[in-house]
Amino acid sequence: MATKILNTPIKDEDLADIHVGDIIYLTGYITTCRDVAHRRLIEEGRPLPVDVSGGAILHAGPIIRTLGEDKYQMVSVGPTTSMRMEKFEEEFIEKTNVKLIVGKGGMGDGTMRGCKKYKALHAVFPAGCAVVAANCVEEIVSAKWKDLGMPETLWTCKVEKFGPLIVSIDTHGENIFENNKIIFNKRKEKVYEEICKHVSYIK
């Protein structure tokens, strides 16, 4: 598996040699963006107040400490389940030209199509590492749509080697979660038969 550092703004050619299963890190800027922000853009037609073209978004509801007027500190920023944004993500990629989507767990066919057609990646930040992620944040540079509350606010963060991020969907249309389902399903019957040998007495 390759390891690569992406820098924002990200160009299409930066992603061409990245494949599912690769480990990447991000240096530059990333904006937290989850359910309601997606809904405002796609369903309500409201443009994002942050330009994420060539940039990155994070499916997360962080914990933020206010240090003063327009000054904030990232305390914890664990990824949230990306599949909740699945119904919006293909159109979100098209409308925003975002190049890196980071979250938890896999995404589906729509995101796969969006990543392949518009050249973007979905990557997974390891679960349970919210403080590690927060430590990669050097500065919170802006907070938009604060009326949505802390979890849904668009927090734009300056980050240094944000990661590790495991690429789950690449620009070639591959999806590591879907690929693994095929592999695991092939193994399932054999494993099932072996287990049954040892627990047949309970049938």
List keywords for this structure.
single chain, 203 residues, alpha/beta, fumarase, five-stranded mixed beta barrel, two-stranded antiparallel ribbon, 6 helices, 9 strands, globular
Could you write a compact summary of the structure shown?
This protein has 203 residues and is an alpha/beta fold. 31% of the residues lie in helices and 31% in strands. Helix 1 links the parallel strand 1 and strand 2.
Written description of the protein model:
With 203 residues, this protein is α/β, with parallel strands linked by helices. It has a single domain (3-175), classed as fumarase, CATH 3.20.130.10. It is built from six helices and nine strands; from the N terminus they run βαβαβββαβαβαββα. It has helices spanning 12-15, 35-42, 86-96, 109-118, 130-135, 176-199; strands at 3-7, 23-32, 56-58, 63-68, 71-76, 100-103, 121-124, 137-144, 154-169. The strands form two sheets. Strands 2-3-6-7-9 form a five-stranded mixed beta barrel. Helix 2 packs across helix 3 (86-96) and helix 3 runs parallel beside helix 4 (109-118). The chain starts with a strand and ends with a helix. The relative contact order is 0.20. The mean pLDDT is 92.
